[in-house]
Amino acid sequence: MVHQTCTESDIAGASFSIHPMSDQFIEIIKGALEEADTSKVHMDTDDVTTTVRGKLTHVFDVTKAIFAHAAKSGKHVAFEATYSLGCPGDSKGEAYLAEDEIPLNAEHVKHIKQRVAAKFSLYPLGGGNYMDVIYSQIEAMKQYVDVSHAHYATRLDGEAIAIFDGLEKVFKATVEGGSSHTVMTVSMSANSPSHRGTNQNE
Ligand SMILES: Cc1ncc(C[n+]2csc(CCO)c2C)c(N)n1
């Protein structure tokens, strides 16, 4: 078996998709991808997902903005993402590591009000006490949004922007805590008919 070695580079990335439950899905997906300022990341869209790579701050900033732009269509939008840091498979995005830490979209999207339901799972690979890391980061998440137990994941209910900011903080804390390869999966749902009656945006 060939063992791939992970580089020392701190390049982060996300592979994500948006699925708007609407006949206008093409406009919603493409519109959201275009509306976000992606100049500090390497971004590539195909028929399955979009991949963004660069500094972790910008990967979260761009995915948060794209989701917020899609969700503000008012249509039921599902979002799936896998975030990863610590084991890059290619190097095209590495040029973007020279960027500064100033997010380009945060100011623009921070006023978007969008209640969402989400689930996330954190995988601190390459560290010892991985369950301790997971439990302490679930605890940390309670500062930002409503947190509840789910099988294979932790449920989050709240404003989309607060949830993305919480996810970014938890991811960073896991990396800074010594996880040499960190993966996080996120599922999010906006404007679901299942939320009717509980959604402040109605
Ligand atoms: C973020 C994101 N990136 C790519 C796709 C895949 N995709 C499905 S339909 C469509 C528009 C027509 O080309 C695209 C790009 C997605 N769903 N969400």
Automatic annotation (TrEMBL):
Domain Thiamin/hydroxymethyl pyrimidine-binding YkoF putative, which positions? 11-90, 116-194
Any single GO molecular-function term of the entry would be: thiamine binding
Domain of life of the source: Bacteria
Q: Which Gene3D superfamilies match?
A: 3.30.70.930
* Amino acids binding thiamine: 18, 50
Q: What is this protein called?
A: Thiamine-binding protein
